[in-house]
Amino acid sequence: MPQAGGMPMPAGGQVAQPQITPSNDPRSQEFYSRTMPIFAAITEINPTYKQTVGSQIFQFVTQLVGQDFGPKITGMLIDLPIAEIQKFCTNYDLFQQRVQQAQQLLTQQQR
Predict the structure, then answer these.
(1) What are the φ and ψ backbone dihedral angles of 29, each rounded to 5 degrees?
(2) Domain for residue 64, yes or no?
(3) Number of folded domains that form the chain
(4) Whole-angstrom Cα distance, residue 49 to residue 42?
(5) How many CB atoms lie within 10 A of CB 67?
């Protein structure tokens, strides 16, 4: 049941943590430390979820693709359906795949 402030809260007041997919990439732990605290806010009842997610993933996107592509790809990722955003926030390897796919799309468009 949603509480004031737009954060869904199950009975008992605790938000269930999503299942994180393990990754061998050493950056995944820092990624999860940024995405897990905001996971409950990634919902259609939160009008600022895109801004929240974008601010948490931007540095990781930029590390993967550089300053030139970072802002555009971050924007592309936060425009994905909510279910997809939730998936890549709990799976760093999937996140990397989505970043690479977005970079390929942008590179193809520039030709």
Answers:
(1) -65, -40
(2) yes
(3) 1
(4) 5
(5) 7
Residue 17 domain flag:
no
DSSP 8-state class, residue 10:
-
CB 3 within 8 A of CB 9: yes
- For residue 3, what are its two tokens? 């509480």
Distance, in Å, from the CA atom of 111 to the CA atom of 46, rounded to the nearest integer, reads 37
Residue carrying structure tokens 């795949």: 97
> What's the pTM?
0.83
The CATH number of residue 81's host domain is 1.10.1900
At 4, the amino acid letter reads A
The residue range of the domain holding 67 is 28-110
Q: How many CB atoms lie under 10 A from the CB of residue 64? A: 17
Q: What is the pLDDT of residues 35-72, one digit of tens each?
A: 999 999 999 999 999 999 999 999 999 999 999 999 99
In a domain, 65, yes or no: yes
Grade residue 3 by pLDDT with cuts at 50, 70 and 90: very low
Compute the distance between CA of residue 83 and CA of residue 89 in angstroms, rounded to an integer: 10
Residue 51 lies in a domain: yes
